């Protein structure tokens, strides 16, 4: 994949306010918006970052690869709402070697974890979004997106369905038939032992990892696949001032057939 376009090529858009949905912010290759539902009794606000891609274009996962841009969402602190995090459906791997990257080649929605600090009153939410959309080059896209949630707003079934669909597409939590049996780390690699469904030597599961800033992971090498059990080694590039990865600091996503699973790694 070619080098990133110049920062001067940022697309910077300031759409107008629309209740429950922001306006679409358009750039070459796609468009983005925020969709949100009314606040829940515990103060959480169901929401998604909705990304619409043109054919042939891609966007990135949490750990995008050497030249990718992971999506980032923040909100004006004066709005009284915090962005606690963002979740991702299972991605795909594109390219090989140093040019490989991880992301999505179809339109996708990322659930947002929002929390209101206010017990009542209207909410006017002003988001800043930064991500990359790529084809032959990667285009950094930056947009300001705004929407309003007046107090007493009725639930919008279409918006809620979009949010629920995005949540349903997330990887599942570990289970007895799909889990990490063991994980260990040394100076240059992770070794993983997994229980996986639908695993075969012809089509082994795909593994995706994301860790602390500065750490990067190479393409997993499948050591063995037999009777639903898999062993794999993953190269790890440690930053100059880095050190041993801490237990719980690496997120693993596994795609096996039509199923996927997500878990933080606890090292032996």
Structure description:
This protein is mainly beta and 268 residues long. The protein has two domains: 25-169, Thiol:disulfide interchange protein DsbD, N-terminal domain (Immunoglobulin-like); 179-265, Immunoglobulin-like, CATH 2.60.40. Helices cover 4% and strands 48% of the residues. The chain is built from one helix and 20 strands. It has one helix spanning 157-168, and strands spanning 11-13, 25-27, 30-36, 44-53, 58-65, 72-75, 81-86, 92-94, 101-104, 108-116, 123-134, 138-149, 179-185, 189-195, 206-210, 216-217, 221-226, 229-237, 251-256, 259-264. Strands 1, 5, 6, 8, 9, 11 and 12 form a seven-stranded mixed β-sheet that branches. A five-stranded antiparallel β-sheet has the order 2-3-4-10-7, with helices on one face. Strands 13, 14, 16, 17 and 18 form a five-stranded antiparallel β-sheet that branches. It is globular, with a radius of gyration of 20 Å. The two termini are 37 Å apart. The model is unreliable at 1-19 (pLDDT under 50).
Number of strands: 20
Radius of gyration in whole Å, from Cα? 20 Å
Termini gap: 37 Å
Q: Indicate the percent of residues in helices.
A: under 10%
The level-1 CATH class of the largest domain: Mainly Beta
Report the principal-axis shape.
Answer: globular
- Main sheet attributes: strand count, strand direction, barrel closure: 7 strands, mixed
Give me the secondary-structure category. mainly beta
Strand content: over 45%
Number of separate domains:
2
Query: Mean of the pLDDT scores?
Result: 86
By CATH, the superfamily of the largest domain comes out as: Thiol:disulfide interchange protein DsbD, N-terminal domain
- Report the total helices: 1
H/E element string?
A: EEEEEEEEEEEEHEEEEEEEE
* Uncertain spans: 1-19
CATH topology of the largest domain, by name, is Immunoglobulin-like
CATH architecture of the largest domain: Sandwich
